[in-house]
Amino acid sequence: AQSVTQLDSQVPVFEEAPVELRCNYSSSVSVYLFWYVQYPNQGLQLLLKYLSGSTLVKGINGFEAEFNKSQTSFHLRKPSVHISDTAEYFCAVRGSSNTGKLIFGQGTTLQVKP
Amino acid sequence: KAGVTQTPRYLIKTRGQQVTLSCSPISGHRSVSWYQQTPGQGLQFLFEYFSETQRNKGNFPGRFSGRQFSNSRSEMNVSTLELGDSALYLCASSSTGAGETQYFGPGTRLLVL
């Protein structure tokens, strides 16, 4: 079984400041890791994913994440945020077997202030 | 390609009724998964269908059921609705599952009165 913990429920940050959204996971099997973003009244959009290979993953909108197997973490970062980045962010894991089941964290609300 | 579409977008029902939600995946995608999103429980996996077969099931009561048709379109049904079933129901599709990206639809917001 897998589980995901997003360590911060809300992260306020000023525009153009850097941000890190933290995610830790637990699993007894190999996993794939994902970050999704959800804007108000919309579905989820994939920001980036880690399947294998380089532990630093770059995604859309300037986001990147680093997979750390020893610390079972997959933190999301952006060097300079914009007002438009205000949204809810979800970290998710999926077993590497042939399944589409995603296990999500509770979400982190990123509030970008002018 | 057109994205994942879900119908209806909004729905109001009363306790005890049943409801059917529909999801049309991206063309060529054979895996469809359903999730329930609530403020209290967050995003929870309901079930996944692949080539008309249920491949995975989450921890939901038997009132929640689904199916997938030969064209990969999927429906989920909730019988005997309860107030706690009020939620955003999200559908996601992918080409095979596993490491492939899941693309989410906009969701159906269900309100049970």
Main attributes?
heterodimer; A: 114 residues; mainly beta; six-stranded mixed sheet; four-stranded antiparallel sheet; 12 strands; B: 113 residues; seven-stranded mixed sheet; 53% strand
Structural commentary:
The complex is a heterodimer of chains A (114) and B (113). Chain A is mostly beta strands. Chain A is globular and about 45 Å long. The termini of chain A are far apart. The model of chain A has no long low-confidence stretch (mean pLDDT 93). In chain B, strands 2, 4, 5, 6, 9, 10 and 11 form a 7-stranded mixed beta sheet that branches. Chain B has a 4-stranded antiparallel beta sheet with strand order 1-3-8-7, with no helix packed on it. Helix content of chain B is 0%, strand content 53%. The N and C termini of chain B lie far apart (37 Å). With 113 residues, chain B is an all-beta fold. The chains are: A mainly beta (114), B mainly beta (113). The interface between A and B is medium-sized, with 25 and 27 residues.
Would you kindly provide a brief summary of this structure?
The complex is a heterodimer of chains A (114) and B (113). In chain A, 0% of the residues lie in helices and 56% in strands. In chain A, β7 and β8 form a beta hairpin.
What is the rounded Rg of chain A? 14 Å
Question: How widely separated are the two ends of chain A?
Answer: 41 Å
Query: What is the alpha-carbon Rg of chain B in Å?
Result: 13 Å
Which H/E pattern describes the elements of chain A? EEEEEEEEEEEE
- The number of helical runs of chain A is 0
The residue fraction in helices of chain B comes out at under 10%
Q: Quick one: which chains have the greatest interface?
A: A-B, 25 and 27 residues
Query: Which runs of chain B of at least 5 residues are low in confidence (pLDDT < 50)?
Result: none
- What general outline of chain A do the C-alpha atoms trace? globular
Helix content of chain A: under 10%
Low-confidence stretches of chain A: none
Shape of chain B: globular
Question: What's the β-strand tally of chain B?
Answer: 11
Percent of sequence in beta strands of chain A: over 45%
Counting copies of identical and different chains, the oligomeric state is: heterodimer
Give the integer mean of the pLDDT values of chain A. Answer: 93
